Amino acid sequence: MTIPVLEWLERALAHHGVRLLDITARIAVESTELPGPFHRDPADQILVATARVFSVPLLTADRKIRDYPHVQALPS
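and the corresponding structure tokens:
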């Protein structure tokens, strides 16, 4: 099933405890200075950096992120 991005985002944000975070300068810098080897996908780098800055786990099906030892990632 395909739904418009805005509708998907509104549904996701309707869940208790889910919130949209801004990309701060600290997150932007962290995304370019991740420790150890990590692939060069900038979107994944921002996701990982955000999780590290806020000390929260990522819920993801992405094996590359789940295998990265410098962030806590949970399978979706």
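(Above: one complete record from the training split.) The two ends are 18 Å apart (CA to CA).
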